[in-house]
Design brief:
The complex is a heterodimer. Chain A is mostly beta strands. Chain A has no helices and 30 strands. By secondary structure, chain B is an all-alpha fold. Chain B: It comes from Spongiibacter thalassae.
Chain lengths: 369, 373
């Protein structure tokens, strides 16, 4: 259903259902619909689903959104606010209607990422407990009871950022950035000399941190990750010191081992040491976006071999689209492009004038709508 | 985007209403943006790549001559050709759009900053190895020793870049590497020039004809933004990477680091900044009628247009006032107030470009490079 209509859902959130801008051009879609947060040229913020050549639905949000996660069973999309992350929004994944707007618990704020448990019962979010001076926690919410907050778990470190479920769904893996920040101090790092970034595994049965793996260097802040079908965790870093650091920025972790650098590639023109999105496909490859260097990079996970790179100005989100066997990548210039392993050029999929896609996007699976 | 789509809509209507041809002509009369883009290619981009190509050809010739007659005079001649090539590279270095962004070309030309002295180590390792030096072995070697950085090492290093190094038994191999690198550079420079040329890859068409199916510039606004982003990129590169970090003006690492100075072996940092600013100023001014400066003025921003021009002039004067390379200044504990002056003028230029230019042009700068996470 696509109608031109603007529905004010609340004073802070409005929904627009748009008709496709160019119906003639989307006779055969070349990619699956994507969910993403975005920012407009005029300074506004949106969250929505983009299909073919237009918004399937779009919500105007009061603050910048960051990551998105899908509740497959309930066909809901959860959008997270970022900086400050006061709320997350639960939206009907087909109509775009707002189901819930959930505030962080007192003294807490979201870091912008979350994940739904395998059985669809719980939502886990990375949060900062500003009340205790910046302790990193995992918020647990009950998806079957209107996303009611249940409890907080120890996240294993300061500054938990992106998280994912391990295969089997019994454990979470969390990228620990290590940076202590408090809303009262803006973006200032309050513990510059005591950074302890790493990867934390949390057993959901015992609610305990079952393993913590230190980053190879205290200034390699680990932020974004994805888990391959084989259970390899690939994590990307953002270096918190003078760049370029010359350090490897993408690492693979297998339970019980150390973080292993994917092939450091001296031929990559990396100057800003900043990984924004990490996305694994189902064939043993991983793609990372490095917006500050206008790059996308592709590695083979098993042997850590660097495969290829693409230049994409202001690259942002990245996600694997299994239906079309391609990575869909977005950028801050409104472009959605396909990155196909082995293909030299990126293929333009869609263009949203004036839209700056944020750093994360998610593909809607087949049969969603 | 607006121009193109409205034009297309009118053209579509033309099929239905053939008598509205006059309306079509007036609706499609060239808007200033395509003229600006064409002018930028004509007056800045093509000349920059042409100059770089010519300088690379001269480096090949001078390297050949030197290897046939290894003496001080020929060495000085090839050093001068290297300096000309570096100055010519200063243009493409501050124009990070189009084919130069592919295949890691910038690092194939210049590997900097080289915190771990990789260029010297990899050049010497290649020379020590058993393989013959030719285009095949160079293509298999690290990309960081295929360009001007490795040539600089071979021509200016206090050990590896002296005449004596070429007069030893191993000198012939060193000369073979120098010539092979010069050839490789010439290939890159020729390829870059032809990639823009209408008879070659014709990236000019990509840049000057934005549209929904254009993978690099889906609308005019983004092509105009590429020019502004180049100027900002260049000013940031000079401010942060060429001055702030190596001179210890960075709060994070307040000690001068002479080995982070660009082209420290050849003491060519000052000339490089001068060539960068000259290329940026040219990119900004274009030809008098249709450059970015004139475009800004025509859009009602004559004051800003003038201010940016003046900021360029001040920065150019400030770099001209230096009388030694930044390597010497960074190595001298007394420093040099003229470097601070240069730093201030470049910072002021950057502020104008970053704060005021996007608004005036109605463009948005990269979002993720500003914020992100």
């Amino acid at each position: 259903m696509r109608r031109r209509e603007l529905v004010k859902l609340s004073t802070q959130l409005s929904l627009a259902l748009a008709i496709p801008t160019a119906p003639a051009l989307c006779a055969s879609p070349r990619f699956s619909p994507v969910c993403s947060a975005a920012n407009s040229r005029a300074g506004g913020h949106q969250l929505g689903v983009w299909q073919d050549n237009g918004w399937e639905f779009r919500l105007d949000a009061p603050l910048r959104g960051h990551d998105v996660c899908l509740h497959l069973q309930q066909r809901e999309v959860v959008f997270f606010e970022r900086r400050p992350g006061r709320y997350f929004y639960v939206v009907d994944g087909r109509s775009g209607r707002l189901h819930h707007r959930i505030a962080a618990q007192a003294g807490h704020h979201f870091y912008g990422h979350g994940i739904i448990s395998a059985d669809g019962r719980y939502l886990y979010t990375t949060e900062n407990n500003a009340g205790t001076g910046g302790e990193g926690v995992i918020g647990v919410y009950d998806c079957q009871q209107d996303y009611r907050w249940l409890k907080h778990l120890d996240s294993g470190g300061i500054g938990p950022h992106e998280l994912a479920l391990m295969p089997g769904g019994e454990e979470l893996v969390v990228a620990i950035g290590g940076l202590k920040t408090l809303p009262s101090h803006g973006r200032k790092t309050l513990n510059p000399d005591h950074l302890r970034p790493g990867l934390a595994y949390i057993n959901l049965g015992t609610a305990q941190v079952s393993e913590f793996v230190d980053a190879p260097h205290p200034q390699l802040s680990l932020r974004h990750l994805d888990v391959s079908v084989d259970g390899d965790v690939i994590v990307g870093a953002q270096y918190q010191g003078p760049v370029p650091s010359g350090r490897a920025l993408v690492y693979r972790h297998r339970r019980g081992g150390l973080l292993e650098a994917l092939q450091a590639n001296n031929s990559l023109p990396l100057l800003r040491d900043y990984v924004a999105s990490v996305a694994c496909d189902d064939k043993g490859k991983v793609l990372c976006s490095m917006p500050r260097d206008n790059l996308l990079t592709l590695w083979s996970i098993n042997d850590g071999r660097f495969l290829q790179s693409w230049h994409l100005r202001d690259s942002a989100g990245a996600c694997y689209d299994p239906r079309y066997e391609q990575f869909v990548v977005s950028n801050g210039r409104g472009q959605l492009m396909a990155a196909k392993p082995g293909h030299r050029d990126l293929l333009p999929l869609a263009y949203a004038p004036g839209v700056q896609w944020d750093n994360h996007l998610v593909i809607l699976p087949e049969g969603w709508s | 985007m607006l121009y193109l789509s409205s034009c297309r809509a009118v053209l579509a209507r033309l099929l239905v209403l053939p008598f509205s041809a006059l309306t079509v002509l007036s609706a499609c009369s060239p808007s200033p943006e395509p003229r600006l883009l064409a002018s930028v290619v004509e007056s800045s981009v093509l000349p920059a790549y042409f100059t770089y190509k010519q300088a690379s050809e001269n480096l090949v010739v001078a390297s050949r001559a030197f290897c046939q007659a290894v003496d001080e005079e020929h060495m000085e001649s090839v050093r001068q050709s290297w300096r000309d090539s570096a100055s010519a590279w200063a243009g493409p270095q501050v124009m990070p759009f189009g084919p130069v962004t592919e295949d890691n070309i910038s690092w194939q030309v210049q590997f900097w900053p080289d915190r771990k002295n990789l260029v010297a180590r990899k050049v010497e390792a290649l020379l020590r190895g058993g393989d013959e030096i030719n285009d095949v072995s160079l293509a298999q070697a690290s990309v960081i020793i295929r360009g001007l950085s490795a040539a600089e090492y071979l021509l200016f290093d206090v050990k590896g870049g002296q005449l004596a190094a070429y007069q030893r038994d191993s000198g012939a191999k060193r000369c073979a590497l120098l010539q092979t690198i010069a050839d490789y550079q010439q290939n890159i420079a020729t390829r870059l020039y032809h990639s823009w040329d209408a008879d070659g890859g014709n990236y000019t068409a990509t840049f000057t004809r934005p549209g929904p199916d254009n993978p690099d510039y889906p609308d005019l606004n983004l092509a105009v933004a590429a020019i502004a982003e180049s100027l900002i990129f260049g000013a940031e590169l000079i401010k942060r990477d060429k001055i702030e970090r190596p001179m210890g003006l960075d709060r994070e690492s307040p000690l001068p680091q002479p080995y982070l100075v660009e082209w420290w072996r050849s003491r060519y940092s000052r000339e490089m900044i001068l060539a960068n600013l000259t290329a940026m100023h040219r990119l900004y001014s274009g030809d008098a009628q249709e450059g970015l400066a004139a475009y800004l003025a025509a859009k009602g921003h004559a004051k800003l247009s003038q201010e940016v021009d003046e900021a360029f002039q001040r920065a150019l004067v400030a770099v001209n006032a230096l009388d030694s390379s930044l390597f010497e200044v960074a190595s001298d504990p007394r420093g040099d107030p003229r470097v601070t002056r240069l730093y201030v003028t470049v910072s002021e230029l950057l502020t104008l470009l970053k704060r005021d230019l996007p608004k005036a042009l109605n463009i948005t700068l990269s979002f993720n490079s500003k914020d992100g996470d």
